[in-house]
Design a protein that fits this description.
The chain has helices spanning 8-11, 59-67, 84-87, 90-95, 119-125, 205-218, 241-263, 268-273, 281-284, 293-305, and strands spanning 21-26, 29-33, 39-44, 47-51, 74-78, 99-100, 109-110, 114-118, 143-145, 149-154, 157-163, 173-177, 182-184, 230-232. The chain is α/β, with parallel strands linked by helices. The two termini are 25 Å apart. Bound molecules: zinc ion (ZN).
Length: 308
């Protein structure tokens, strides 16, 4: 979910009492819950891989928790998107790691972990020469991809970093651990609120639905029981395919309702008054706070009304 609010809201947040909870998911994969977006960790003989890094003030606690899982070097960080609640710890966690075998020399190594992300994550963290960038260079991705997907093989399993276009932002990746059978979704999926898509950063409601469908395509449930593919959402609890199917259906129903109302020529006020989210409000809605149901309906309305 992440930031409706600009940076100062986070500057006021106190992390002293935040604890990092580690949940073994399946195979080599763990879910770390603290403050901000969920972290996924994959650990094995070759080292440690992170998906997202929460906030910088939590890095010491996160590293201490990961050291109980593995003493091997931190080799990779994959960012699902650029928001600070998912990338705030990039620099400190990358600095705790290393990248072996870089360059033509046999034993050359880079003294930081490799940060992988879609190219638009780098674009949103950096700036042209001479302009103050939004984020320090040490937090930037060092290995980006432009479209489709990026693949790596690490700790005996294939890992797919898959771009889902124009969804929560314009630089979203979902990460599929093929052998462990776990998908880390970033903020295209969460269990705590209606979908949030950052329209100021290229997000869209239809992109979110496409991303949810892509995850459903990957996931295979275990017949008539819990298990099969596990899904780690951007925020909220560990899920399986049935959870994400339900969320996709809800999102699609609301999208279709708002689309039909726009077709009838209804204004935003009229659409909000018609409550297209009504049977879902108790579970996902909010009337106060940084992200209200009215704001969600407005974002859907504007996303569907936007000229292509
Ligand atoms: Zn986010």
């Amino acid at each position: 979910m992440s930031l409706w609010l600009p940076l100062p809201a986070y500057a006021r947040q106190n992390f002293d009492n935040v604890e990092i909870h580690v949940l073994p998911v399946q195979g080599n994969v763990y879910m770390l819950v603290g403050a901000g977006g969920n972290i996924t960790v994959q650990a094995g003989d070759q080292g440690v891989l992170f998906v997202d890094t929460q906030f910088a003030p939590l890095s010491d606690k996160i590293l201490a928790a990961v050291r109980k899982l593995s003493n091997r070097p931190i080799r990779y960080i994959i960012n699902t998107h650029y928001h600070l609640d998912h990338t705030g710890g990039n620099e400190s966690i990358a600095n705790a790691g290393m990248t072996p075998n870089v360059g033509p020399g046999a034993n050359l190594q880079r003294p930081t972990a490799t940060i992988i992300a879609h190219d638009n994550v780098l674009n949103r963290m950096s700036a042209p020469t001479g302009v103050q960038p939004p984020r320090p260079a040490g937090a930037w991705p060092t290995d980006t991809y432009v479209s489709g997907q990026k693949e790596l093989f690490f700790n005996d399993e294939g890992i797919e970093v898959i771009h889902v276009p124009a969804a929560h932002t314009d630089g979203d990746s979902i990460v599929y651990f093929r052998r462990s059978d776990v998908v880390s979704t970033g903020d295209v999926f969460n269990t705590t609120s209606f979908p949030y898509f950052d329209t100021g950063a290229g997000g869209s409601i239809n992109g979110v639905i496409d991303a949810l469908n892509r995850i459903i395509q990957i996931a295979i449930p275990k017949h008539e029981q819990e298990g099969g593919t596990y899904i780690i959402p951007g925020h909220g609890r560990l899920c399986d395919e049935a959870d994400i199917v339900e969320y996709r259906d809800m999102t699609t129903i609301i999208r279709d309702r708002v689309q039909a109302m726009i077709k009838k020529g209804m204004t935003l006020d009229q659409v909000q008054a018609a409550r297209p989210t009504k049977e879902y409000d108790r579970r996902y809605g909010a009337t106060t706070g940084p992200r209200t149901t009215d704001m969600f309906v407005e974002a859907v309305y504007r996303s569907l009304s936007a000229k292509k």
